[in-house]
Every structure is written in structure tokens, then in C-alpha cells.
């Protein structure tokens, strides 16, 4: 017979809600770039509203964690799960905030042609989306093999960001009228690069949750 | 060298029909607090009692070795009285003798032949047990008139009075309120500077709070023993994890 049913149910709910928040943050990041690529101001505006839902879930999860810590005296794997949720919801919230920042820029620039064709920004998005998908899968299944190469993937994103920045700076030097659009795109690339950093943080915490070992991925 | 080491320790009860401890190999370090945890009937108290040969008072049979400072306490030549002086014990229920605080403390030293400096032994023991300030002007009062927490600290003081090196505690806080429990836990941290402490507890949080090492017993076997911080954060054995997270027990 299982004892502490209420406790186990609460842990299960915590997992489910954190996963839900993860999915919503991932969708926000994906849609922000979709809105950029498609010059879709409506999608971008909807994203800004979706952020408040994610904020609400974050508080709810934090409450659940605090209650579990205060009332249930969790240990071992349970304690690591709760500690991980408490940490990663901050990263997930930042990811959705960054997606919101990208959406705000899209609302401003979607009506005009961009300073350069979008090639590397969607590539960064593809990589970060892959990282987030792997994080959520690892969180759910407790299998962490797919998180081991996150440092390399993050290096790839950093490289692409550097490349985008150099190109856009060159464009701005060549054509001062493109400065507004180009600087917006630099910010978008920077936000994406930050999203990849948050994915690395999340992966580190999930590795800790599963193995108990602290390993910094960056 | 470890303060205590058990080698192939087995304890049998009821004419050998119950195998209470099975081939336990364990090392207990000096000036550390070691917590013994596990579900009821797992052998943790039996193990504790094996460390000063208390099980034999109940007719249990013990095989294997328990080395204290390298000497096997089950060697027939060992003096059990001296052993129990060196390895003191405090029980679950506070059990002061029905006499004054002073006489409770002086009882042990007196039966060991000590006659001088009894006042200072009583004072020092009570101070070490963090009880002196509360009872200094009531040393003649009957110990049974004090609170449970005070009685338990008196029992600790009584154990300290004969100058032990090791203190065994069998769920010393289970009959106490939270404040008294906190006092005892704080006291253990002070006492470990001078003594080696082994504590049986059902309270996971207490084990995590007070101990340096934790040993998990299950069905008479020692399943896992290691640093407390590791045992409670990432135990190796699934059964340890299931127990400390309350999946059973």
C-alpha cells in the first residue's frame, strides 16, 4: 500500500504544472520568431497576453513548492524535484519574458522590410527549440542523455549570434538608414542567445534532479 | 582507526529463531554523530544495543565482532561493567531514578568507587547536559518532579557523569515536545566535540539535522551508510530513498 497519497499526488501535480509552464514558454519563444519571420503583428500581440498566464502559473508552482517544503519535509529525489522546479520556473519565466521582448520588437518593425534577410535568427530558433524540447522530455522521462551536448549547442548559438551581430554592424556602417531595423534585429538575436543560456541552466538543474550531481552547462 | 567497527555482526533472538541483525559491517567515526534509521523492526535498536552488549541482557546471541578502539567487546575477557561505563546509553523514555537530581548524577560515579569531588562532577555533568542553569538551586529535589525534557537531559548528564567516550541514544526525543527536542539536538552538537554519539531516530528530519553520518537498516541488514548530506540528498539504494521519502515505513 502506498502511504502519503496526498503528498505523492501533490508531487505529481507539481511535475505536471512545471511541464505545462515549460511547454507554454517554449511555444512563446517559437511563436515570437514565427511572428518575426511572417511579419505577423497579431501573433506578436497575442504573445504579450500569453505572458501573464505564464506569470500566473509561475506563482502557482512556487506556492506548491513552498507548501510541500513547509508541510511534507521532502527528502532525496523528492527534494531534488522541488528544488529543481523552484529554480527552473525562473528560467522558464525569463524565456517567456524574452519571447515577449521579441514580440514587442516585432510589433514595432513588422510593417517595414528588415535590414537583412532572416537566415541565422531562424537557425538559432531551431537550435533553442531543440534544447527546450529536450529539456522538457528529460524532465518528464528522467532520461538525461540528450542534455549532455548542451554546452556545444550553446557554443553554436553564441557563434551564430556573433555572426549576426557582425553582419548587422556592417550593414549599419554601410547604410545608416538601416540602423533602427538592424539594431532591433541584434536585440532579437541577443534575446535568443539568452534563451539558449536559460535552456542550459534548466538542463543543469534537470541533471541534478535526476543524478544528484551538480554540473554547470554553459 | 574508527572509534567503533563492527565485523560480521549477527544477533539472534528467541533461541535463535529470529535473526535480528545480519552480517553488519560498519564503521563509526570518533567525535561524529551517527544516526541509525529504518522502519520499525529493522534492527537499528538491536544494533545500538549491540554496541555495549545490552542485547545479552535479553538473552540474545551475538556473533561477529564489535571493536571499540580496536578491542573486541565480545571477547570473553572484556569487563562488561567497564564497557558500559565507556559506552553510555540514554533511552527513549526518560528514566531518572526516584531520587534527587544530585543523587541521580552521583549514582554512577559512586558505584564505580568515586568518593571525592562529587559536587564538581555533578555540576560539570549538568552543565555539559545544558541543565545546570535550570536546576542549580534545586539539586535536592526529586528528579521525577521535573519536565520530560529536563528528565531526559538529566539522563544524559547521568550518562556523562561516569566519563564515557561513546554515548548511545535510543530515540531520545520521541517522548519530548518540540522545544525540548530542539534543546537536546543542540546539546548533541556540543557533546560531539568530546564524545562519539550514535543515535537511533524515527524522525528523518532529526537525523538529517543532527547527524554527520547516517546508516539505513532494513530487515536486519545495513543497506547503506554514508555522509548524512549524501544519504538525504541522493541515496544510492532505492529502498533508502523510498523510506526517507515516506513511500513506506
What is the percentage of strand-forming residues of chain B? Answer: 25-35%
Strand proportion of chain A, as a percent range, falls in under 5%
What is the CATH topology classification name of chain A? Methane Monooxygenase Hydroxylase, Chain G, domain 1
Gap from first CA to last CA of chain A: 43 Å
What portion of residues of chain A is helical? over 70%
CATH class of chain A: Mainly Alpha
Specify the overall morphology of chain B.
Answer: globular
**Which sequence of SSEs, written as H and E, runs from N to C of chain B?**
EEEHEEHEHHHHEHEHEEHH
Full CATH superfamily name of chain B: P-loop containing nucleotide triphosphate hydrolases
Query: Major beta sheet of chain B, specifics?
Result: 6 strands, mixed
What is the CA-based Rg of chain B, rounded? 18 Å
CATH class of chain B: Alpha Beta
Count of individual beta strands of chain A: 0
For the record, the CATH architecture of chain B stands as: 3-Layer(aba) Sandwich
Order of helices and strands of chain A: HHHHHH
Q: Helical residue percent of chain B? A: 25-40%
Question: Can you name the CATH architecture of chain A?
Answer: Up-down Bundle
Total of domains of chain A: 1
Low-confidence stretches of chain A: none
Amino acid at each position: 500500500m502506498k502511504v502519503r497519497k496526498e503528498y505523492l499526488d501533490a508531487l505529481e501535480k507539481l511535475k505536471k504544472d512545471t511541464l505545462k509552464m515549460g511547454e507554454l514558454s517554449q511555444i512563446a519563444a517559437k511563436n515570437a520568431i514565427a511572428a518575426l519571420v511572417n511579419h505577423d503583428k497579431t501573433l506578436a500581440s497575442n504573445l504579450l497576453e500569453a505572458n501573464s498566464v505564464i506569470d500566473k502559473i509561475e506563482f502557482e508552482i512556487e506556492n506548491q513548492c513552498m507548501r510541500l517544503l513547509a508541510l511534507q519535509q521532502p527528502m532525496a529525489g523528492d527534494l531534488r524535484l522541488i528544488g529543481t522546479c523552484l529554480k527552473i520556473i525562473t528560467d522558464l519565466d525569463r524565456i517567456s519574458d524574452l519571447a515577449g521582448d521579441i514580440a514587442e520588437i516585432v510589433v514595432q518593425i513588422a510593417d517595414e522590410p528588415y535590414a537583412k534577410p532572416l537566415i541565422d535568427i531562424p537557425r538559432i530558433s531551431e537550435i533553442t527549440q531543440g534544447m527546450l524540447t529536450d529539456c522538457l522530455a528529460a524532465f518528464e522521462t528522467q532520461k538525461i542523455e540528450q542534455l549532455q551536448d548542451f554546452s556545444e549547442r550553446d557554443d553554436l548559438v553564441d557563434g551564430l549570434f556573433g555572426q549576426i551581430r557582425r553582419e548587422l554592424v556592417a550593414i549599419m556602417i554601410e547604410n545608416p538608414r538601416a540602423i533602427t531595423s538592424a539594431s532591433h534585429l541584434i536585440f532579437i538575436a541577443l534575446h535568443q542567445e539568452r534563451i539558449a543560456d536559460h535552456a542550459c541552466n534548466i538542463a543543469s538543474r534537470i541533471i541534478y534532479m535526476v543524478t544528484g550531481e551538480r554540473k554547470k552547462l554553459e | 582507526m574508527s572509534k567503533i567497527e563492527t565485523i560480521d555482526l549477527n544477533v539472534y533472538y528467541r533461541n535463535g529463531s529470529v535473526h535480528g541483525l545480519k552480517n553488519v559491517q560498519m564503521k563509526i567515526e570518533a567525535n561524529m554523530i551517527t544516526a541509525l534509521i529504518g522502519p520499525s523492526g529493522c534492527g537499528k535498536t538491536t544494533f545500538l544495543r549491540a554496541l555495549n552488549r545490552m542485547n545479552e541482557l535479553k538473552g540474545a546471541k551475538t556473533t561477529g565482532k564489535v571493536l571499540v578502539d580496536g578491542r573486541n567487546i565480545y571477547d570473553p575477557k572484556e569487563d562488561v561493567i567497564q564497557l558500559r561505563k565507556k559506552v553510555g546509553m540514554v533511552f527513549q523514555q526518560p528514566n531518572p531514578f526516584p531520587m534527587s537530581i544530585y543523587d541521580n548524577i552521583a549514582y554512577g560515579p559512586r558505584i564505580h568507587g568515586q568518593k571525592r569531588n562529587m559536587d564538581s562532577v555533578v555540576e560539570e555533568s549538568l552543565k555539559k547536559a545544558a541543565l545546570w542553569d535550570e536546576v542549580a538551586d534545586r539539586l535536592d529535589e526529586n528528579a521525577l518532579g521535573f519536565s520530560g525534557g529536563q528528565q531526559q537531559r538529566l539522563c544524559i548528564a547521568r550518562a556523562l557523569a561516569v566519563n564515557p567516550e561513546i554515548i548511545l541514544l535510543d530515540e531520545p526525543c520521541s517522548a519530548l515536545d518540540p522545544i525540548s527536542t530542539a534543546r537536546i539536538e543542540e546539546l548533541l552538537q556540543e557533546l560531539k566535540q568530546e564524545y562519539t554519539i550514535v543515535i537511533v531516530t524515527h524522525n528523518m528530519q532529526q537525523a538529517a539535522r543532527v547527524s554527520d553520518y547516517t546508516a539505513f537498516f532494513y530487515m536486519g541488514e545495513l543497506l547503506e551508510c554514508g555522509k548524512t548530506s549524501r544519504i538525504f540528498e541522493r541515496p544510492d539504494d532505492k529502498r533508502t530513498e523510498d523510506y526517507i521519502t515516506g513511500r513506506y515505513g
